[in-house]
Design a protein that fits this description.
mainly alpha; single chain
């Protein structure tokens, strides 16, 4: 329950960000510097970022043991894998209903 309350604070609160300074620095970077210091939000892997954020909250705020967090990650990855295998099959089965 503690974890849910902590995540709720960050998950349901509206946040406003101002990136004027970042944009002004980005314009001044050379192409090589932009490759080294990527700050393009369009290239951010949101699934990975949010997954790591949740792991960080669990480890550093809730003080869960790292082994539990790693086990939970494995279970989540297994669920995603199962969905990738079964969803195409289910979609095909839905399309073929009534056909013999």
């Amino acid at each position: 329950m503690l974890y849910a309350n902590i995540v709720k604070c960050f998950g349901v609160t509206g946040w406003m960000f101002d990136d004027k300074i970042v944009r002004s620095v980005l314009v001044k970077l050379t192409v090589e510097d932009r490759d080294k210091f990527c700050v393009d939000i369009k290239q951010l892997n949101w699934a990975n970022c949010l997954g790591r954020w949740v792991e960080g909250v669990r480890q550093y705020i809730v003080n869960e043991d790292l082994s539990i967090i790693l086990e939970a990650r494995k279970l989540c990855e297994m669920q995603v894998y199962k969905q990738q295998i079964t969803l195409p099959w289910l979609n095909t089965a839905d399309r073929n209903k009534g056909q013999i």
